[in-house]
Amino acid sequence: MTETLEKYFVPEPSKYPIFGSIALLMFGSGAVMWLHEVGAGPWVFFLGVAVLIYMLFGWFGQVVRESETGKYGRQVDRSFRWSMGWFIFSEVMFFAAFFGALFYARVFSVPMLGSGDNEALLWPGFAAAWPTAGPQPADAFTPMGAWGIPALNTLILLSSGATVTWAHYGLLKGARGQFKLGLLLTVLLGATFLGFQIYEYLHAYADLNLRLDSGIYGSTFFMLTGFHGLHVTIGAIMLTVMLGRAIAGHFTPEHHFAFEAAAWYWHFVDVVWLLLFVVVYWL
């Protein structure tokens, strides 16, 4: 019995990786120059951003055209799935580093600094209680409470996870109206989450005196919530692109991994937020 082997698609050599490398070099070097108040820093930074946007539109546009013309088979689809899985794993490790720093500070560093000889000889009067700015003198601040905007944002993100899943079910059963409506609702919920997060930051600075330089609590709070907000922004952009493609008639019940990848990423930011809400806001 003979077996027909599927041909694996091999793309032509691309110019976009070198453009991406140049963009990241300009982006990073421009940011450093800007921080050191070099006059050309902002220009180099934003030129890097422009080149990066050109690369993203060009490269992903090429991939979309190749996909829509039927050049990708099961093997390519499988390689995409593995790639997205490893990418999300790398993001898990990224956040694990920040959660690990918070855990170490709360469980080991702060109690150690406020106990025994450390407290008596080095930091007299330091109370090892969380939240704290640390043993160094710092302006008083009010920690961000869990029950308010953070709890509302938790409900919003959980709802967005449900709407993107509802959209996926609509695509699988061929209900394109449900698919597009679910995507639209997910994007709107993501934008609402970001709007509330911006308001929360303004409230922290203006009313709570909670800033990035408010010791260990301020730095871990803004690093974790800020990077999560960045990932929500990226996820919302991805889903907006998926909505545009859905309106253009892309995706079928059998062939839609680009949407699935964006949905995986969105569920990932949902899970990170749940953990973040518990250990940063609640406990």
Give a structural overview.
By secondary structure, the protein is an all-alpha fold. It has 2 domains: 10-71, Helix Hairpins (Orthogonal Bundle); 74-282, Cytochrome c oxidase, subunit III, four-helix bundle (Four Helix Bundle (Hemerythrin (Met), subunit A), Up-down Bundle). It has helices spanning 16-35, 41-68, 74-113, 116-122, 149-172, 176-207, 215-247, 257-282. The model has no long low-confidence stretch (mean pLDDT 87).
Can you lay out the helices and strands and say which pair or pack?
Elements: H1 16-35, H2 41-68, H3 74-113, H4 116-122, H5 149-172, H6 176-207, H7 215-247, H8 257-282
Low-confidence blocks of residues: none
H/E element string?
A: HHHHHHHH
Q: Superfamily at the CATH H level of the largest domain?
A: Cytochrome c oxidase, subunit III, four-helix bundle
Main sheet: strands, sense, barrel: none
Helical residue percent band: over 70%
Mean pLDDT: 87
Strand residue content: under 5%
Number of strands: 0
Distance between the termini: 64 Å
Number of helices: 8
Radius of gyration: 23 Å
- How many separate domains make up the residues? 2
Category from helices, strands and their pairing: mainly alpha
Return the CATH architecture of the largest domain.
Up-down Bundle
